[in-house]
From TrEMBL:
Pathway(s) of this molecule: Cofactor biosynthesis; thiamine diphosphate biosynthesis; 4-amino-2-methyl-5-diphosphomethylpyrimidine from 5-amino-1-(5-phospho-D-ribosyl)imidazole: step 2/3; Cofactor biosynthesis; thiamine diphosphate biosynthesis; 4-amino-2-methyl-5-diphosphomethylpyrimidine from 5-amino-1-(5-phospho-D-ribosyl)imidazole: step 3/3
Pfam families: Phos_pyr_kin (PF08543)
Family membership noted in the UniProt record: Belongs to the ThiD family.
Protein name as annotated: Hydroxymethylpyrimidine/phosphomethylpyrimidine kinase
Cellular component terms (Gene Ontology): cytosol
GO-annotated molecular function: ATP binding; hydroxymethylpyrimidine kinase activity; phosphomethylpyrimidine kinase activity
E.C. designation(s): 2.7.1.49, 2.7.4.7
InterPro entries given in the database record: HMP/HMP-P_kinase_dom (IPR004399), PM/HMP-P_kinase-1 (IPR013749), Ribokinase-like (IPR029056)
Top EC group: transferase
């Protein structure tokens, strides 16, 4: 029996490879876990934005899930773009069947480009169906705002939202990501008992497409290896920091991060920063 650890992502696509399933699989590979993927929506997008979205038929998503679970059981699961209520219901059914598998919920709602990746009506359902199943949820500021129903502009407000997402919405733990605030890049982690700040310098770059996907994919990979949630989140922060620092300057808009950036630690980046 193989000892290899296995991570599954259930998400949409990015043909330019910076976000979605493509980013998740690259990250799984870099973290040395075997990556599997179930596709929810095919998205025509690039570094400038989203052109079009095609949702896969529900039956076909179900067949993909059946293909995976009837053959190769993952050690951890991540969900990204789940656009419709029907998809959420289907996926939550599988998650409930395997409560022993750690689950990282990246509640993807809107891309950095401003394009909507989830039907508005599904925003309520994600709260009810998916958040309570999450081992760790990783909302960015605007997603956390939708989850708690008020604006979040300060670290204290991030902390209050983190506590509420665990205590009232039922996630086991949460990271409220501060990528869209100013100053240091501070994420707030709440484990149900204690609040932690994960901070890094802020890089002044437009190349942050897919940061959230990549961050949550690292967390999933580390959970698949049996790491604690805190260790997984710390690793996610270290990895995404290097991925942004050594971003590849690709595309005409908000380019992707560098999924092998952590291997370049200590070297100067494209902007001459060490
Ligand atoms: N310019 C930046 N410099 C350093 N870290 C960043 C920057 N932008 C985002 N991050 C980090 O990347 C991760 C993803 O955050 P965020 O961009 O808020 O998520 P999303 O991509 O879901 O909007 C977080 O750990 C955040 O702190
Ligand atoms: C298919 C797909 N899933 C998720 C996203 C959003 O990715 P995220 O990591 O939040 O980064 P931005 O795109 O918002 O920079 C996506 N774009 N596509």
């Amino acid at each position: 029996m193989s000892n290899v650890k296995i991570a599954l992502t259930i998400a949409g696509t990015d043909p330019t490879g910076g976000a979605g399933i493509q980013a998740d699989l690259k990250t799984f590979q870099e973290r040395e876990v075997y990556g599997m993927s179930v596709l929810t929506s095919a998205v025509a997008q690039n570094t400038l934005g989203v052109l079009d979205i095609h949702h896969l038929p529900l039956d076909f998503i179900n067949q993909q899930l059946e293909s995976v679970f009837s053959d190769i059981k993952p050690n951890a699961i991540k969900t990204g773009m789940i656009a419709t209520i029907e998809m959420m219901e289907l996926i939550s059914h599988y998650l409930r069947e395997y409560p022993e598998i750690p689950y990282c919920l990246d509640p993807v709602m809107v891309a950095t480009s401003g394009d909507v990746l989830m039907e508005e009506i599904s925003q309520t359902i994600i709260k009810e169906q998916l958040v309570p199943l999450a081992t760790v949820a990783t909302p960015n500021l605007s997603e956390a705002e939708i989850l708690v129903g008020r604006s979040i502009r300060t670290i204290e407000e991030m902390e209050r939202a983190a506590i509420e997402i665990v205590a009232e919405l039922g996630a086991k733990t949460v990271v409220v990501k501060g990528g869209h605030l100013d100053g240091e890049a501070i994420d707030v982690f709440y484990d149900g008992n204690q609040l932690y700040h994960l901070s890094s310098e802020r890089f002044h770059t437009v190349h942050t497409h897919g940061t959230g996907c990549t961050f949550s994919a690292v967390i999933t990979a580390e959970l698949a290896k049996g790491k604690s949630i805190f260790e997984a989140v710390e690793q996610g922060k270290a990895y995404i920091t290097d991925a942004i620092k050594y971003s590849l300057e690709l595309g005409k808009g908000n380019g992707p991060t560098n999924h092998w950036g952590y291997r370049l630690q200590g070297l100067p980046n494209e902007r001459g920063e060490k």
